[in-house]
């Protein structure tokens, strides 16, 4: 599969008065053409920092790239100047942010905001840009686009504002769309509509998608590949079927167990993960999930395991999956 994006050993930190915060710690993954990759994990695990690193939108300082590469079409984004990035952002890589109300200008009509983006990225006349804006609103299923183009953001519902944000991101037919928590604060029905819309646009425009979320249930039938992040690291990665049917890392297993199910008994309580992620001012030497893991061993506290491959596309970083641990378990069963 042709690779649109390759992230290699990316490390991103923030300088603070208290010291260095290692927000992203040597992660590697790639995104293929027309592929949907989901990055999941709790808040504070480095998902949004990863997304903003790809767009080069982090405030520098205090943020800085500590190492690694972000290759888009074979070129390292980290080495690009701000002027070069302005040509890439919106044209080739677009982003849909978590809260459309803070991303849209509340004092400007929706149409004007879309028209400005079209003129900037495509160089069309004002009249041509307006026609294109109406077409984009129609494409994302906003009813009566000729009328609604003259309305302000507060006149739209949360789901409709998110559709407008997707229309803004789509104006230049990007090769890669990054959606950072695109369904947060939306009800379940609207969530499904937004995800369905993104799938339809992907098929129509042949683009790749990175979707950032804390909810594995959101990406169950949408993603081709799932990346599970914890404490700035990738603890498990694999095809969606592999992650959902055969999760290997205890953190992934707990994330899946915390998703409410339709077949749950009324008396059955929803599972949750006790504790909080570790402080990344002083990252743990060993597995960062040690303090919250039901299977923690002494070796976990002091040593971070290497990645263990379960298939060509599936790996995890857990001592339970180490060959020695497997051999010990097999021996104890006999």
Describe the overall structure.
- The chain has 334 residues and is of the alpha/beta class.
- A hairpin with a 2-residue loop joins β4 and β5.
- The chain contains 12 helices and 12 strands.
- The strands form 2 sheets. Strands 6-7-8-3-9-10-12-11 form an 8-stranded mixed β-sheet, sandwiched between helices. Strands 2-1-4-5 form a 4-stranded antiparallel β-sheet, with helices on one face.
**Terminal Cα span:** 43 Å
Radius of gyration: 21 Å
Q: Kindly state the number of beta strands.
A: 12
Structural class label: alpha/beta
Enter the CATH topology name of the largest domain.
Answer: Rossmann fold
Shape: globular
> Biggest sheet: strands, sense, closure?
8 strands, mixed
Strand content: 15-25%
**What proportion of the residues is helical, as a percent range?**
25-40%
The CATH superfamily label of the largest domain reads P-loop containing nucleotide triphosphate hydrolases
Q: In terms of per-residue confidence, which ranges show pLDDT below 50 for 5 or more consecutive residues?
A: 328-334
Describe the strand arrangement of the main beta sheet, using strand numbers: 6-7-8-3-9-10-12-11
Give the helices and strands, then pairings.
Blueprint: E1 3-16, E2 19-32, E3 36-40, H1 47-55, E4 63-72, E5 75-76, H2 82-88, E6 93-96, H3 100-103, H4 110-122, H5 126-139, H6 145-148, H7 158-170, E7 176-180, H8 188-205, E8 208-213, E9 225-230, E10 233-239, H9 240-245, H10 250-257, H11 298-302, E11 308-309, E12 315-316, H12 323-333
Parallel strand pairs: 3-8, 3-9, 6-7, 7-8
Antiparallel strand pairs: 1-2, 1-4, 4-5, 9-10, 10-12, 11-12
Helix pairs in contact: 4-5, 5-7, 7-8
């Amino acid at each position: 599969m042709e690779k649109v994006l390759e992230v290699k050993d990316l490390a991103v930190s923030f300088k603070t008065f208290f010291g260095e915060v290692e927000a992203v710690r040597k992660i590697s993954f790639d995104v293929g053409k027309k592929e949907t990759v989901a990055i999941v994990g709790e808040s504070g695990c480095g998902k949004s920092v990863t997304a903003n690193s790809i767009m080069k939108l982090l405030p520098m300082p205090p943020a800085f790239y500590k190492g690694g590469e972000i290759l888009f079409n074979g070129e390292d984004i980290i080495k690009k100047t701000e002027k070069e990035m302005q040509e890439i952002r919106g044209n080739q890589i677009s982003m849909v942010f978590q809260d459309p109300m803070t991303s849209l200008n509340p004092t400007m009509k929706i149409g004007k905001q879309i028209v400005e983006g079209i003129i900037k990225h495509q160089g069309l006349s004002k009249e041509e840009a307006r026609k294109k804006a109406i077409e984009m609103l129609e494409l994302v299923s906003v009813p009566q686009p000729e009328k609604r183009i003259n309305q302000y953001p507060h006149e739209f519902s949360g789901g409709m504002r998110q559709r407008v944000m997707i229309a803004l991101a789509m104006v230049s037919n990007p090769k890669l769309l990054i959606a950072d928590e695109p369904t947060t604060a939306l009800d379940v029905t609207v969530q499904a509509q937004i995800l369905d819309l993104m799938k339809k646009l992907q098929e129509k425009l042949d683009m790749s998608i990175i979707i950032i979320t804390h909810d594995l249930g959101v990406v169950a039938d949408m993603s081709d590949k799932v990346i599970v992040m914890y404490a700035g690291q990738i603890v498990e990665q694999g095809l969606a079927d592999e992650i959902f049917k055969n999760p290997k890392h205890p953190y992934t297993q707990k994330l899946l167990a915390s998703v409410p199910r339709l077949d749950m008994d009324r008396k059955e309580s929803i599972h949750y993960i006790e504790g909080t992620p570790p402080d990344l001012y002083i990252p743990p030497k060993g597995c960062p999930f040690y303090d919250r893991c039901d299977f923690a061993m002494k070796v976990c506290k002091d040593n971070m395991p290497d990645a263990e491959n379960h298939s060509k596309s599936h790996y995890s970083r857990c001592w339970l999956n180490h060959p020695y641990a497997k051999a010990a378990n097999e021996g104890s069963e006999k």
